């Protein structure tokens, strides 16, 4: 499936590492998250169907139902990339945002990520470290609703929490619903918000010594956040090709056409060019950060405190309470200002009324005066 034009990450590795990796293959775990109904499950099916050889034979094992996802689901598959085996695990999560209490709906995803670090850390502390069970997530794709406007406060909050735990890759869902122009504007808006909010997203490494890799990474960065189209179906284009895509009256939105969306770019980042970087940064940055933080707050070998006693959890609670109080204050101020404006308006209206009354009075006097003079001239 690798086309020769795109750089193959594995082949670019220093020899030593290349050998080790090629012999053992790699275990790679991807997670999808985001609001409900954005096509997360469909994306997973699309990824499997475009990367697994003989997918038709394995369809039943890998294809996921695209009913609403209601719990965290784990699917495994084996890919072969240029004589190199990848044990791919994909974690599908229930979409959030359609409950009254949004907080509860994404909390399990954060806990899942922490639990994997925790479980790996405990296994590392065992005297015999045999084959470990490792479900640490190497890349988390965060699906953004293609509104064309920006990010919701909920997106920002969840992305912040994800980005401190995992390599976060934001993606724009259902790219076929935005025009190319609107898509470009939307991308730049989202990049600005991400920067302004200080959300750390995954960025392909810029290797200065390899010109073509450098150019490739730069072009990836300018396309971020990747816009994707997902589809379970093969459809026929007006020029007679059978492709994965979505059929419309105007034609076909093709999954693997770079003019239509960034699916191929995203897949190349995940499966080809940057898989090892994603694995290493997970180990070196995110896992290390978790380990260091846990070491600070508890003694060696001690179990993780229950959620309620967890200082981090308390800290979050505290931050939330503070934000709530601040918001109430802001609302109160807004209300005061509004009240002031109303009072001023009332005074102005009262004044107007007074002036009108005075005018009416004066007019009445004038009328009386005129009536008086008419009566007088009648009598004459
Ligand atoms: N137009 C368009 N529709 C899509 C795309 N991907 C998925 N859909 C449709 O969106 C609907 C929801 O898709 P799912 O894959 O179930 O969405 P989900 O994000 O897994 O939803 P939850 O499991 O509820 O979180 C389905 O009707 C899909 O056919 C896309 O790229 N473009
Ligand atoms: Mg789903």
From TrEMBL:
Residues 24-297 form the Septin-type G domain. Keywords: Coiled coil, GTP-binding, Nucleotide-binding. CDD domains: CDC_Septin. Signal peptide: none annotated. It comes from the Eukaryota. The keyword Nucleotide-binding applies. Gene3D superfamilies: P-loop containing nucleotide triphosphate hydrolases. One of its GO terms (cellular component) is septin cytoskeleton. One of its GO terms (molecular function) is GTP binding. Transmembrane segments: none annotated. InterPro entries: G_SEPTIN_dom, P-loop_NTPase, Septin. The keyword GTP-binding applies. Residues 314-366 form a coiled coil. PANTHER family: SEPTIN (PTHR18884). Belongs to the TRAFAC class TrmE-Era-EngA-EngB-Septin-like GTPase superfamily. Septin GTPase family. This is Septin-type G domain-containing protein. It comes from Aureobasidium subglaciale (strain EXF-2481) (Aureobasidium pullulans var. subglaciale).
């Amino acid at each position: 499936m690798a086309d020769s034009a795109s750089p193959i990450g594995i082949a670019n590795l220093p020899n030593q590492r290349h050998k080790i990796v090629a012999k053992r293959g790699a275990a790679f775990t991807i997670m999808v998250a985001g609001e409900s109904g954005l096509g997360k499950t469909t994306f997973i099916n699309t990824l499997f169907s475009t990367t697994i050889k003989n997918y038709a034979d394995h369809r039943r094992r890998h294809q996921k139902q695209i009913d609403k996802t209601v719990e965290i689901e784990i699917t495994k598959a084996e890919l072969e990339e240029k004589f190199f085996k990848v044990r791919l695990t994909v974690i599908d999560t229930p979409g959030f945002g359609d409950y009254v209490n949004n907080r509860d709906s994404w909390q399990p995803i954060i806990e899942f990520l922490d639990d994997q670090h925790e479980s790996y850390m405990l296994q590392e502390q065992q005297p015999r470290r045999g084959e470990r069970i490792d479900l640490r997530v190497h890349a988390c794709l965060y699906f953004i609703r293609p509104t064309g406007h920006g990010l919701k406060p909920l997106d920002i909050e969840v992305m912040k929490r994800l980005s401190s735990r995992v390599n976060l890759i934001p993606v724009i869902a259902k790219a076929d619903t935005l025009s190319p122009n609107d898509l470009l504007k939307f991308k730049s808006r989202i990049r600005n918000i991400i920067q302004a909010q200080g959300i750390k997203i995954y960025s392909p490494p810029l290797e200065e010594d390899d010109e073509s890799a450098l150019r490739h990474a730069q072009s990836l960065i300018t396309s971020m956040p990747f816009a994707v189209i997902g589809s379970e179906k093969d459809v026929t284009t007006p020029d007679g090709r059978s492709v994965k895509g979505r059929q419309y009256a105007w034609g076909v939105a093709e999954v693997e056409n770079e003019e239509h969306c960034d699916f191929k770019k995203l897949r190349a980042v995940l499966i080809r060019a940057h898989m090892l970087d994603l694995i290493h940064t997970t180990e070196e940055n995110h896992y290390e950060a978790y380990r260091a933080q846990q070491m600070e707050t508890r003694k060696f070998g001690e179990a993780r405190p229950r959620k309620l006693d967890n200082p981090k959890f308390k800290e979050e609670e505290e931050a939330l309470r503070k934000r709530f109080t601040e918001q109430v204050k802001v609302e109160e101020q807004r209300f005061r200002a509004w009240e002031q404006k109303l009072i001023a308006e009332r005074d102005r209206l009262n004044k107007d009324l007074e002036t009108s009354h005075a005018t009416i009075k004066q007019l009445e006097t004038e009328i009386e005066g005129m009536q008086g003079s008419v009566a007088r001239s009648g009598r004459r």
